[in-house]
Amino acid sequence: MERPKGIKLSKLVDHFGLAVLHKPEAYDTIRVQTADLNRPGLQVVGFYDYFAPERLQVLGMMEHTFLAGLTSQARRETFVRLFATGIPALIFCHQIEVFSECLEAAAEQGATVLESPRDTSDFMAACIAWLKVELAPCITRHGVFVEVYGEGLLLVGESGVGKSETAIELVKRGHRLIADDAVELRRTSDTALVGTAPESIRHYIELRGIGVVNVRRLFGIGVVKSTEKVDLVIHLEEWKDGALYDRLGLDAQFTEILGIQVPSLTIPVKPGRNLAVIIEVAAMNNRQKRMGYDSALEFTKQINKYFEANAAGQYE
Q1: Which of 132-136, 149-153, 188-192, 312-316 has the lowest mean pLDDT?
Q2: How does 220-249 read in b/e, with b if 16+ C-beta sit within 10 Å?
Q3: Is 181 a catalytic residue?
């Protein structure tokens, strides 16, 4: 089944605590499909060229003052024209007086009228930021998502390779769990990928032989986090004899997720390797790289300098 586009208007109303002044019969089916908002200044004077009816319409003090100067009949016609375009909702800010003509037109056209006590600019900024996250392209990946030293690490690999066990060890070492088994990934900008857990399994980890445990209940509120940016993808795989694994770290690897190239590593797993410690080092090393220092590159330069110096000494 194809996932419905957008989010329900009622979810936005609940999140921002908006007052519903007029609710049409189709209220529960109305969906918001864009993070862009519009202040209908031009529309109240009758200009509808390039108008985007899929946007939420926000009425502030300036538009309200203009409308207050119109006759009752002109105001009513203005709102009828606006609602006839099929906008998701009209939102009054500042708790300014809502015109009776507006509510009459809304009842006639089956439109939604909402009210917010917040300043217009403040409400629009908060609403756009929230909608960008809610409406961001989203996929679900099998894996474990943890925060280690401020780095968001997505652990992926075959079932049974040890992802959840490693996450528990990292939690015991003071790091934080974001998601286990299913990770929801959202592209919030051209460069940012954010991960979270589905609400139904948030804070839970499945450990084979024990079952499902609530990490928040066992270790405390400080070991969980609701969301984090994905900084590094770590592929865990069973150690393969004869396979060539990166020994220096000079070859940059990336994993593409929702069109974003995320730095990645492949870590072979076998008995005796302390994965939690290795992943801690990987997190710190990745952070150093983002801050401009590459230890592998520095090591290579130092070795080359050593051999060049020895070679020069042989010919003196």
Answers
A1: 312-316
A2: eeebbbebbebbbbbbbeeeeeeeeeeeeb
A3: yes
